[in-house]
Amino acid sequence: MASSPPFESWLRPGPSGLHCVPGDFHIDPSGPVPRAVITHGHSDHARPGHDAVLATADTLAIMRLRLGTLGQTQALAYGVPLRVKDVTVTLVPAGHILGSAQVVIDYNGQRAVISGDYKRHADPTCEPFELVPCDLFVTEATFGLPVYRHEPDTAEVQKLLASLRDFPERTHQIGVYGLGKCQRLIKLIRKAGYDRPIWLHGALRSMTDYYVSRGIDLGEVPNVADAPGTLAGEIVLSPPSALGDRWSRRFADPLAGFASGWMRIRGRVRQRGVELPLIISDHCDWPELLKTVTETGAREVWVTHGREEALVHELSKRQIVARALRLVGREDDAE
Amino acid sequence: MKAFSQLLDRLTYTPARNAKLMLMRNYFRATPDPDRGFALAALTDGLPIEFPLRRVLAEIGESRFDPDLFRMSRDDVGDTAETVALIWPATEVQADAPSLSEIVVALGKAGRSGHAALLTQWLDRLDATGRWALLKFLSGAPRVGVSGRLAKQAVADAFDRPVDDIEELWHGVAPPYTALFDWLEHRAERLSLASTPIFRPLMLAHALEESDWQVMRLDEVAAEWKWDGIRIQVAAKGGTTRLFSRTGDDIGQSFPELVDHFTFDAVLDGELLVLRAGEVAPFSDLQQRLNRKTVTRAMLTKYPVHVRFYDALEIGGEDLRALPFTARRERLEVWHREHGPAHSDLSEVLSFTSKEELKARWEATRAQGIEGLMLKRKASPYLAGRPKGHWYKWKRAPLTADCVLLYAQKGSGKRSSFHSDYTFGAWTEKDGQKLLVPVGKAYSGFTDAELAELDRFIRQNTIERFGPVRSVTPKLVLEIAFDAIQESKRHKSGIAMRFPRVSRIRWDKPAEEADTLTTLKALITSVG
User: 3-state class of A198 per DSSP?
Assistant: First the structure.
């Protein structure tokens, strides 16, 4: 068998991100391009200003809510192959947030999977990650160090409920990212049997409403602005930036929580002044990263962002060709 | 171990005192002996074990994880023990977590060579939080924001006893404190402590308010100088001598020359000082002697310590605490004339003929390098705690300086949304350029309304944010009150302020007119 051409000959890391040459499109570009394929709606992946966007219907809807009007759009359902010039593109669930997809590109008998952000842990608010065997796997490494192992999310939610029992006089204000984490946490709290209203900061409203409109039942989720009193003993969700901010002075002796994979590290918990760290992440932890990379059977792995040095080191030890792309514009800490 | 690791984990994240007390109270009620006793030891005086944690970790680390990944992880986490706890490979079989008592007993039996095998085996049996707590436990001082006093308070609360009872018994019991818990849970009589020197809770003074001074009658109070050392209780009995700090910590190890000379039968209250040729040395000299496990001969000569007694709680086995101050003082004087050991004298009782004269003496304290006056009601018994209306401290008037606000940090608890910790600076010159150098930090002295105004100013004048810290445009002048200025090699400015607080916010004063480092350095005193 003749040796295949290097992946770089048709999938090129450049200043605006990954460019698929024979398909003539970029994946999650950092600036405006003529044709973009977008893996999911987070702002460091879904940027404004492209002439044409291909993504799942949910991702397109989320982008419209966040960015206003988009250029020309095309929705592609999971698992449906689409011919784009000389390549075939298929979107496959990534398990990261609602609508998130891995981009599978078949070209000349080679298959590359650009996984975007993904996780293997079950998430009741999105389709589970689907493993696609491939030749080249492109992965993130946000939590690419062996110290990052996320606890089961059900145990973390129990920590929140236990704290509510211990401090019934305090408002529990939990910092969450507005797209994905917020709705997943609400759903997890509901699954744990908590049926009181969960109060929302205004910035979390539109995405939460969108999830509900997609048939994800989140129970009663009123606005903090409409709350009658100081919400003592209630759960309030807000963007992380509102923790310990003036906005929180309305609450009864607010107890600051934060739902994030970073809460695994005590220094980060202290630095943010968090009293209730909840280790809930929408990214893979270290064992999941290694498991996924191994299971894809890829002979080459590219690491886009995060702690790529450690992951490349570990994969090289396992005789998998690995390289760090250091793509610009990825917000490492936005989790 | 699971309950203990959860306790430590939550304590580290909980800033509020009452919440910490609640967590500890629940733990001490729910956890059986002897584990809770070892936990109490870890939170107070430390465990009766020596474990060379760093050496053992270095020994087992290489065999368990990739050194490159460990280094990268260590850089990310920022703490070696925590990195080990997090990176430790999860074992398939979740065996029973070791109990604290199992750990203490095994370490007692194991020699140096057994340490690594034991630690490896325990780490394998724990989850990440458990591993972190174990390493904290073995490091001796867990540093989870709990003082020994607070832990004792929690034990007292858990069993509805006054904390003073625990303090009194404390030095008559040892880890795992089974006798203490037996008594607390009504399974045993109170321990008899007749033969050992124990700590008696101290009597503390209130700051003198103008209103106290107004109603005070001259013939009712005795006055003494306020000494600038640390409060000490010397308890000696049956050939054993203990030196207790004001919180009941036994600090005798740092002062062997005192322990050796104080071989009497009494419990005395006094001030620990460094004294040279009868002159009290600055507090910073005394600091050289504090918290040292071993004391060199050079330290003994360079920083000679001395105790200036001012009260007697017990002499020759007789409890004097119910007697009035004047009677106790008389007994103290008689005793000291007969038995007074080297390295000790008595705090002078000042004579004065009018309140004006007393006030004049107070006003002269700064010039004399003395911290202030103590006023003690002659009729007062020796009462534990800080009873109202008995003892007063009358600190010399503070010094003030106008400094410029440079950095602000958010507080915790009720102050978590307010910037309440301020770093301020004074002007200095470098290469002909005027610049501000930080000279101190203050957290108090302002009202809630002023705090809100300061917070607003800080938010509107932020230059940069570093996590919870903000640098602000240097334009707000704070009048800082402080007790003294000392030389300091640890601070860039070369000075350290004692007890700084915000006395006024000078919204009116331009930053250019704030004080200079030179002015502040001129306030450095060689005494007091």
Answer: strand
Q: Does the CB of B414 have a partner CB in chain A at under 8 Å?
A: yes
CATH of the domain at A226: 3.40.50
- Asked if the model's pLDDT at residue A2 lies above 60, the reply is no
Instruction: Give me B94's structure tokens.
Output: 């979740």
A169 is a domain residue = yes
| CA distances from residue B448 to A251, B480, B499, B500, B526 in whole angstroms, order as listed | 17, 17, 20, 18, 37
Per domain, the residue ranges of chain B are 2-138, 206-395, 399-521
Q: CATH: 3.30.470.30, 3.50.50.60, 3.40.50.300, 3.30.70.270. Which one for B206-395?
A: 3.30.470.30
Diameter of chain A by CA atoms? 73
pTM: 0.82
- Pairing of the two strands A172-175 and A235-238: parallel
By CB atoms closer than 10 A (0-12, 13-18, 19+), residue B479 is middle
Total domain count, chain A: 2
Residues A19 and A88 in one domain: yes
**Are B270 and B230 in contact, with CB atoms under 8 Å apart?**
no
What residue ranges of chain B have pLDDT lower than 50?
527-528
ipTM for this prediction: 0.92
| A30 shares a domain with A87 | yes
According to the model, what pLDDT value does residue A333 have? 53
Same domain, A169 and A317: no
Q: Are residues A81 and A44 in the same domain?
A: yes
Over residues A245-264, the mean pLDDT reads 94
Distance from A246 to chain B by nearest Cα, in Å?
Answer: 6
CB A183 within 8 A of CB A207: yes
Range A11-18, long-range pairs (CB < 8 A, 24+ positions): A11/A105, A11/A112, A11/A136, A13/A302, A13/A325, A13/A327, A15/A328, A17/A327, A17/A328, A17/A329, A18/A114, A18/A138, A18/A325, A18/A327
Determine whether the interchain pair B468/A273 forms a contact, defined as Cβ–Cβ distance below 8 Å: yes
- Quick one: pLDDT at residue A3? 63
Shared domain for A77 and A119, answered yes or no, is: yes
pLDDT value at position B192?
78
Q: B2-138, what's its fold? A: DNA ligase i, domain 1 (1.10.3260)
Considering only the top CATH level, what class is B399-521?
A: mainly beta
Nearest C-alpha of chain B: how many angstroms from A41? Answer: 27
B77 chain-A contacts, CB cut-off 8 A: 147, 265, 267
Measured between CB atoms, which of B22, B86, B468 is closest to A271?
B468
Residue A70 sits in a domain whose CATH number is 3.60.15.10
**Mean pLDDT over residues A185-211, rounded?**
98
pLDDT exceeds 70 at position A335: no
Helix, coil or strand: residue B451? helix
Q: Are residues A108 and A178 in the same domain?
A: no
Residues of A in contact with B13 (CB under 8 A): 269, 274-277
Q: CB distance A149–B128 less than 8 Å?
A: yes
User: pLDDT at position B528, please?
Assistant: 38
Whole-angstrom Cα distance, residue A252 to residue A255?
9
Instruction: Choose the closest CB to A166 out of B22, B414, B416.
Output: B22
Average pLDDT over residues A127-136: 98
Domain of A272?
153-278
Residues A124 and A186 in one domain: no
| C-alpha separations of B167 from A165, A190, B160, B200 in Å | 32, 47, 14, 7
- Both A195 and A314 in a single domain? no
Note whether residue A1 is domain-resident.
no
The model's pLDDT over A265-320, given as tens digits with 9 standing for 90+, comes to 999 998 888 999 999 999 999 999 999 999 999 999 999 888 899 999 999 999 99
Identity of the residue in B87, B410, B467 whose CB atom sits nearest the CB atom of A147: B87
Residue A22 lies inside a defined structural domain of this protein:
yes
Q: Does B461 touch chain A (CB under 8 A)?
A: no
